[in-house]
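Section 3.1: Structural characterization of target chains.
Under the original work plan, the team committed to producing a structural model for every single-chain target entering the pipeline before any wet-lab resources were allocated. The record below documents one such target. The sequence was received from the expression subgroup and is listed exactly as submitted; it comprises 383 residues.
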Amino acid sequence: MSEVASPPPLVVVPGDDLADQSRGLLIEGPEWISSHWPEIAVALAAGCVIYLLLQFLKRWAQRVCERGEGVANWYSILGRALAKTGQLFMITASARIVVGYSEAPPAITATVTFLFTIAAVFQAAIWAREIVFGAIEHRTRDETYQGQALASALGIIRLLVTIALFAIAAVVVLSNLGVNVTGLLAGLGVGGIAIGLAAQGIFADLFAALAILLDKPFRLGDSISYDKGSGSGEVEAIGLKSTRIRGPNGEQRIVANRKLLDFEILNTTRRARNRFKFDFHIGYATPPELIRRLPTLLKAVVESEGYTLVHGGVNGFSDNGLSYDLEFESITTDFPPEARDQVAAAVLTCLREHDVSFAYPTTVNLLAKKTKPAPPARAPERV
């Protein structure tokens, strides 16, 4: 009798059905264990070491988060991300090392690789999500931004980032499994464009709100002016669609975030210094020697009040007298309301001490002198 040839080994790939995979594992599993047990033992030891190392990193990251460091620096942000490492990823990573070193049968290798791919892709999505969340919270951790607007904005950011990352992870997994994802990507792209066009205004204001929270052109309580100075007030609230500003007359102005960022915004609260200017006229009768000394005298007066002279001198001739300007600024951001009154009183005192008079607008009316009409000529007398 001729010997019956043994059937070829069963090669199972992730595309086979579950019954074929189970049959392949039952046939090849025991043979593999009995013939490769030394390699399997070494690989299991290496897998345990990898698992314990990942557990150690996770515990260390959890301790970093429990110390209260929060998102103070990137060290804490990475620690919080590592603390989200899942058990499934650690187990599949260890198993992948075991089957790779111990020359496992194709059925076992394919199964472990399949599970590891899914776990690794979604674990990477979780790490990326935590890093993005940490970076955003680190940027917006200023207590002046805490409130309902920040909570709502961060909630929307978390939702959008989570959907985007896990959608990418799902596409990557399907692509690795041999699924044609071209149609899926096209459908997602068309759907995203349609949603973006339908809610263009809402998304524009939403992203403008996120830009305000992240870039911080102004904060709650700041005094700002916008639209070339036609609008001004104190920022009371930063919402998802609009910013509320308390106007100088007590009214509340509601400006769309997108429109507000289109303007040039002057943040007067964050100014490095404050500046003010006086314009006046002095009489033409002022001696030229005194006019030359006036800048030095005015500088001493302004500095005696604790401010810095920017410019003080004649800037032209006018019908009312010599045109003069005095511009001064504060050394720091502190500029009390009475500063102008104090400087004005000091300047007036200095001018009076040196007999410098202000020129006043005057009007001269020239009237013609009335003359009596000449008497009519008399006719000559006849002789």
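The domain at 275-353 is CATH 3.30.70.60 (Alpha-Beta Plaits).
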